[in-house]
Amino acid sequence: MPTTHIVRTAVDALVERAQREIDEGLLPSCQLALALDGEVVEQVTLGDHLGDDSRYATFSAIKGIVYTATWQLLAEGSLRLDQRVAELIPAFGTNGKEAVTVEQLMCHRGGFPLAPLGPPDWSDRAKRLETFGRWKLTAEPGTYAYHITSAHWVLAELLEVIDGIDFRESLRRRLFDPLGLKRLELGVPLERTGDINLAVSVGEPATAEEFEAAIGVKGVAPDTWSDDTAVASAQPEHLAVGMPGGGGVSTAGDLARFYQALLHNPGGLWDPTWLHEGTAVVRVTDFDMLFTAPANRTIGMVVAGDDGRAGARGFGKTNSPQTFGYNGFGGQMAWADPTTGLSFAYLTNGIDRHLLRQTRRGVGIASRAAICAA
Question: What span, in angstroms and rounded, lies between the C-alpha atoms of 243 and 328?
Fold first, then answer.
């Protein structure tokens, strides 16, 4: 990895771009962080917030972190990619799900992308297992479709079965404590949610004509994970549950530091073979409706790629093709570029209903962030 340094003028341009929607009154606040050589070199919080070190909901950005714990299980031999999930979670093995493998689960190919699990059952392990048993396939296992929350509930149960402790505690012991990440958390007790900038919906949805002008299709299919649903999932009583597919909270700094750990592997936290598999080896190239581009997924991360579609996958236009990460609903970003050694995180509590504007903002911010290291 080459020696790099932070370019101050580029950082200033990045912060100026992030400030734009704050000044326009669209986003209430946001926070961004850049990290290099294992350390955060810049963290900025903008707008009306609860403090410079206050936290935000990460939404799906937590998915990438949960995946990295399963890489440890694979290295330990307690889990295999070709293993049937039902071997470890018998309650899951119903209604055609008996043949679903761990690899399919990790690659959004399980065949149950919209399987529901919500309050109050998601707070009780026994109820969660009962719910697994009721889930039915809506696609043949092996078929690619983004699993919004369902697959990660099963991954969390695999952690519980193998480690013999609550999945939130397992993540803390395996990842957060060894890396000293005290602000990154899954499952925040209600008494400790006072430092979280709670999500709110902002803006108006894009019109059918705007979608047609942007992507050539008039209108867009109804969201299965709406803005209102996302905002509700990020309220204190739901963040306390620790939904493994979308219920994390963090500062941008701790999120950027986590991706530094994936670049540098301090203390050999991950087996190098599985770390490479998870951050670099693309297994899924199916077309992804979420990205309107090929998915470029590993067993846990999305890779920017060199096909000119990195921006659609949630990266900027100036990242290297090797950049990997996992972004979240509402414009949350978390990625690392092995070429420069830079990692970046952006979090906001303004969930923009205008998806086109949100996407353009993400590309603009990520593109500016990627050139902050030279």
Answer: 13
pLDDT of res. 218: 57
pLDDT (tens digit, 9 = 90+) per residue, 354-364? 777 888 899 99
Question: Are 345 and 24 a contacting pair, CB within 8 Å?
Answer: no
Which residue range forms the structural domain that includes residue 96? 71-169
DSSP 55: B
64, pLDDT greater than 60: yes
Check whether residue 103 and residue 160 sit in a common domain. yes
Among 124, 140, 169, identify where a domain stops: 169
Taking only the tens place, the pLDDT of each residue in 207-266 is 666 655 655 555 554 444 466 777 888 888 999 999 999 999 999 999 999 999 999 999
Verify that 328 and 356 share a domain, yes or no: yes
Q: Are residues 56 and 78 in the same domain?
A: no
Residue 292 lies in a domain: no
Q: How many C-beta atoms lie closer than 10 Å to residue 221's C-beta?
A: 7
Scanning the chain, the segments in alpha helix (DSSP H) are: 8-23, 61-76, 85-88, 102-106, 125-134, 150-163, 167-171, 177-179, 208-215, 227-233, 236-239, 252-264, 272-280, 355-370
Number of structural domains the chain divides into: 2
The answer to whether the CB of 46 falls within 8 A of the CB of 54 is no
Lookup: tokens for 326 = 């996992």
pLDDT of residue 194 exceeding 70, the answer is yes
